[in-house]
Amino acid sequence: MLRVVHFEINADDPERVVKFYQKVFGWKIEKWNGPVAYWLVTTGPNDQPGINGGIMKRMNPQASTYNTVDVPSVDEFTKRIVEAGERSLLPR
């Protein structure tokens, strides 16, 4: 079976997005030392199911990202998201 091996989050303000994902999910995010602004995202240990990805400056206004993150408690993480300054768009 083929699987997703990487994701990219397009953001108008990548540094704000980096802080959000670090605060809410505890992801390890490091700025890449390359010719463009890009952050490498490690979502967990390599021996566990899941994928890693990247965050980059949105270059195209239509560029969007959809991510599904497995969490142990929807209620707990909805609270963390709101505490991080975001809002829930859909009811549980």
CATH architecture call: Roll
Residue-averaged pLDDT:
89
Which descriptor suits the 3D outline? globular
Tell me about the largest β-sheet.
4 strands, mixed
Identify low-pLDDT runs. none
Helix content: 10-25%
CATH class: Alpha Beta
Explain what this protein looks like in three dimensions.
- By secondary structure, this protein is an alpha+beta fold.
- The protein has a single domain (about 5-85), classed as 2,3-Dihydroxybiphenyl 1,2-Dioxygenase, domain 1 (Roll).
- The protein has 2 helices and 4 strands.
- Strand 2 and strand 3 (about 40) form a beta hairpin.
- The mean pLDDT is about 90.
Please provide a brief summary of the model:
The protein has 92 residues and is α+β, with helices and mostly antiparallel strands. Helices cover 24% and strands 23% of the residues.
